């Protein structure tokens, strides 16, 4: 069902990015999960409960779009939030879910269900964005332990409002995606900085 060499490369890449994300404070302890598409039926995914700064290839497993494990390992409880993206868009090649302090705090205090950003040059780091004059919209969803229900809500929103580049879960973190891990990481890095700008603006307005 999947190529073993592709899986081995994906597993090592996820370990490498895990160390980077942990070093930046975006994936503390065992939080977060990352994945890479292997084909039209399955993806490589970090196992549940693994420290993201200490990942090894043995901590990566393969799951299908229904979230079933195809290799040894325990799928993350949030697997369906990855597979929902792969199933809806065949151009998505990687998904990163992280728990940075900026994303968690801002998502908790932002009053609207959409976070709209415009006027920032860094917006052009997202694939297809060519000007700072456009407005980027990032939806915020309430945290939910029923992941199947949350995945269905995300899909419903994307079907009616557009897929966008990322979304936030309140008090939880962010999901970002891209054609491959490099693009996905670029999107995440840009988003983290943009969220930081917004949080600083909120602080300044309180002075």
From TrEMBL:
<keyword id="KW-0456">Lyase</keyword>
<comment type="similarity">
    <text>Belongs to the aldolase class II family. MtnB subfamily.</text>
</comment>
<dbReference type="GO" id="GO:0016832">
    <property type="term" value="F:aldehyde-lyase activity"/>
</dbReference>
<dbReference type="GO" id="GO:0005829">
    <property type="term" value="C:cytosol"/>
</dbReference>
<dbReference type="GO" id="GO:0046570">
    <property type="term" value="F:methylthioribulose 1-phosphate dehydratase activity"/>
</dbReference>
<feature type="binding site">
    <location>
        <position position="99"/>
    </location>
    <ligand>
        <name>Zn(2+)</name>
    </ligand>
</feature>
<dbReference type="InterPro" id="IPR050197">
    <property type="entry name" value="Aldolase_class_II_sugar_metab"/>
</dbReference>
<feature type="domain" description="Class II aldolase/adducin N-terminal">
    <location>
        <begin position="12"/>
        <end position="199"/>
    </location>
</feature>
<dbReference type="InterPro" id="IPR036409">
    <property type="entry name" value="Aldolase_II/adducin_N_sf"/>
</dbReference>
<comment type="pathway">
    <text>Amino-acid biosynthesis; L-methionine biosynthesis via salvage pathway; L-methionine from S-methyl-5-thio-alpha-D-ribose 1-phosphate: step 2/6.</text>
</comment>
<keyword id="KW-0862">Zinc</keyword>
<dbReference type="GO" id="GO:0008270">
    <property type="term" value="F:zinc ion binding"/>
</dbReference>
<dbReference type="InterPro" id="IPR017714">
    <property type="entry name" value="MethylthioRu-1-P_deHdtase_MtnB"/>
</dbReference>
<keyword id="KW-0028">Amino-acid biosynthesis</keyword>
<feature type="binding site">
    <location>
        <position position="97"/>
    </location>
    <ligand>
        <name>Zn(2+)</name>
    </ligand>
</feature>
<comment type="function">
    <text>Catalyzes the dehydration of methylthioribulose-1-phosphate (MTRu-1-P) into 2,3-diketo-5-methylthiopentyl-1-phosphate (DK-MTP-1-P).</text>
</comment>
<dbReference type="Pfam" id="PF00596">
    <property type="entry name" value="Aldolase_II"/>
</dbReference>
<dbReference type="InterPro" id="IPR001303">
    <property type="entry name" value="Aldolase_II/adducin_N"/>
</dbReference>
<protein>
    <recommendedName>
        <fullName>Methylthioribulose-1-phosphate dehydratase</fullName>
        <ecNumber>4.2.1.109</ecNumber>
    </recommendedName>
</protein>
<dbReference type="GO" id="GO:0019509">
    <property type="term" value="P:L-methionine salvage from methylthioadenosine"/>
</dbReference>
<dbReference type="GO" id="GO:0019323">
    <property type="term" value="P:pentose catabolic process"/>
</dbReference>
<keyword id="KW-0486">Methionine biosynthesis</keyword>
<keyword id="KW-0479">Metal-binding</keyword>
